[in-house]
Amino acid sequence: MKPSQSLASVLTIALQAGLLAHQSGAGTHRTSLIIQRTAKALGAARVEVIISSTNIGATIEWGSERETGFRKAPHMGANFALLTTLNQWLCAVEQGEANPELAQQALDDMAQKPVHYPRWLIIILVGLSCGSFAALFGGDSAAIMITTLGATLGMMVRFYYVLRHFKPSVFATAASFVALLSTGLLSHWTQTPEAALAASVLFLIPGVPLINGAADLLNANYLNGMVRFAMSGVIVLGIAIGVSLALRILGI
What we know:
Elements: H1 7-23, H2 28-41, E1 46-51, E2 55-62, E3 65-72, H3 80-94, H4 100-112, H5 119-136, H6 141-162, H7 168-185, H8 193-199, H9 207-218, H10 222-250
Antiparallel strand pairs: 1-2, 2-3
Helix pairs in contact: 1-2, 1-4, 2-3, 3-4, 5-6, 5-8, 6-7, 6-8, 7-10, 9-10
């Protein structure tokens, strides 16, 4: 079936869908499938996709016509709510419930929605989550409280550096240092300081990159998988440096 609009328009919509998925924490395989399914649902006969850690591209064909395009795709973090909305949008497009114009408008609306919750709410919830980990590690009430405080301060430092576009190694080192030092300075109030110290830096663990890196390797996307593992390794190294400095100051 010939596309109801030009191949260039189909390519634009497919790449925009892939860009949203890539920036919201989707793995390479899922991003590639979203681009392919979108283009084919809009009438493309053949779709070839290439995805790197910072770029996505595709070539789509119908008969003798062919269009190729690329987009810069910087990492934006995890947004699973957007991924769910995008999946629902794709199902509607495949079932013919949305014409190309409506599909484009829906993508534009998704892109304009706020990506994150308010920073103050994230900071508070991250602190509480680390406090919960301290409880799971067997910490007493005092350990939970000081872990929550230390992680909250560490998350504030993380946001400070991230918003100023510092590299992951820098914000991981600074945030882990502040979180552990703050928790360590108050550790005399608890009978379980080890639980508090261990839980105070868990908010920095790069869970999504590690999971996506493993998924990429399992799906034979070896280059992207190694890139994600390398990025995770840099963050873990930063955490180790910050923790080591804080422990040295605390004399532990």
